[in-house]
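Fold this: Response regulator
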Amino acid sequence: MVRILLADDHDLVRETLAQYLAARGVGPVTQARDAEGVLRLLEEGAVFDLVLLDYNMPGMGGMSALDRVLAAGGVAAVAMISGDMSQGLALEALERGARGFVPKTISPDAFVRAVECMIAGEVFAPATLLDRTEEGALSLREMDVLRGICAGKSNKEIARDFDLQEVTVKLHVKTMSRKLGARNRTHAAMIARDRKLV
C-alpha cells in the first residue's frame, strides 16, 4: 500500500487533490496544513512513500521546508507542488533532492500520473518548465551533459563534474534526447558527432 502525505495550507486545494488521488486508487492520502504538521507526523513515527509539499505555505515554506522534511527521515521521496511555474524554482528543488516539481496548473489526470511516476522512483518535472530554449536548441547545461555522454561518462560522473544531483543530470539527458530525436544516450552521442555538436 502506497502512503502519501499532502501538505497545503489551502483547504480546498488540499482536499480536492487528496480526494482525486483516492478516487484513482492512489493512497491512502494523509493531509497536513503546513510543514510543521508534516514534521510532527514524522516525529511521531509516521512513514510515507511520497510527501507532496506546497511551495508557498505560511510559517515554513519554500526550500527550507523541503530541506527539513528531507532531513527528517521516514520519507522515501519529497516533491514540491506550486502555483508558480518557475524554471528556477523547479531546478532548485531538484538540486536540493526533491523527487519532482509539480505545477498546480496541470490537469488532474496529469497530476495523478506525476504522483504515480514519482512513487515508481522517477523524477518528475514538466519538460515545458525545464526547456526555456528555442525549439530544438540545447541549453548550455544540456550541452555540458552531452559532452559528458560523448566522453563516455556516467550520469554520476557528469553530476560530479558539474556539481549537480544525479537526478538533475537524468532530466537533462531526457530533455536533450527528446530535442535531438535520440532513442538513448548512445544514439544521442552518435547524433552529436554526426552534427559536429561536440
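The mean pLDDT is 87. The radius of gyration is 18 Å.
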